[in-house]
Specification:
Helices cover 54% and strands 12% of the residues. By secondary structure, the protein is α+β, with helices and mostly antiparallel strands. It has a six-stranded antiparallel beta sheet, with helices on both faces. It is elongated and about 85 Å long. The structure holds fe (ii) ion (FE2) (2 copies).
Length: 395
Amino acid sequence: MGRRQDLEKRQALLAQFGRLIAAEKRLDNLLSIIAGEVRKILSADRCTVYLLDNYKGELWTKVASGGEDQILRLPLGRGVAGFVAKTGSAVNLRDGYRDSRFSYELDELTGYKTKSVLAIPLKGAEGRVLGVFEVLNKTKGAFTEEDEGLLRILATMAASFIENATLYDELRRSHLETIYRMALVAEFRDQKDTARHLRRMSRFAEILARGSGLGRDRAEDIRYAAPLHDVGKVAIPDSILLKPGALTPQEYEEMKKHTIYGSQMLANAESRLLRLAASIAVAHHERYDGTGYPYGLKGEKIPIEARIVSVADVFDALVSKRVYKGAWDIDEAMKYLSSQADKLFDPRVVDVLESRKNELVEALEEENRLLAQGEAFEARIHETEAQFLKHHLKT
Ligand SMILES: [Fe+2]
Ligand SMILES: [Fe+2]
């Protein structure tokens, strides 16, 4: 290819790069778009974008291994990327394995064999290091000085978008943390395994929402609003909430009011998530046939988010061990729920429950596994939230 054609091709790729990254606001999508484009533009086999976690002094990146996304963390100073982040200077190696700065962790995790490496710092508006752009294994030969210049341009273009997406992510996470904490407060008195129940039922709710065709963002909102379904319980007196025996009819009437209290606590919120939570709180005990409470709403009159959450909530209660009962197995629980389709539950949501069984089981197993490792709070809501939980909930 002639010099001029080559230049034109690169300019076109740069313009496309700019358009693509400007259109994406979510950090995880943004990072994978950047990695894909940079790889193409530099004719490299791989591109990894590491972000700096200032709190822990580590670099992290999402890597696909064995079909699953994993978060790889690298202490500052370790590996080529760690060196670049620490010193702020670029590294260009013809053969990574021959350099003492190279760390084998990523290759070990992914089964990849690195040869040539080019890594440059990703700097934010004030020259602060935000992370590292690393490209691996150039298709032909080693990375040139021209490649390095090009990678610097790409990093400069991407920096402000990454910075914004990171801020947005942080804001969202602190919002979620508050919601989670509120939910924990509400269930703290009467359930010892509260955190586990909330995590699991909210994951189930998201799966059911996706399966009901609600779209990714809405399903995610439902997941984050769902833990607040019983927030109104804080207003129920101990004598009723903690009563060991059966409730009297009057006590039961008072207990039912947790739905109303919840919606009052969340009413007229400015936040979209909290408005959704209000709608779930008030209607999660309504029944499809109209025999539920507090208003006896029927069928489609019950908001879809509440129809979904009531299935997720009961499903989790059934498959969990409680003081008064052992854990049911998944099939038993599903059988019970389908026997109550049209009565307690929206039959379409129950259908989704059955068709998404594998996903539900996976989510359940993942949560249980994390719990067994003593990491209940670190369970992944999504990859960035895992960090958030580590930072904020455990300490
Ligand atoms: Fe409830
Ligand atoms: Fe619940």
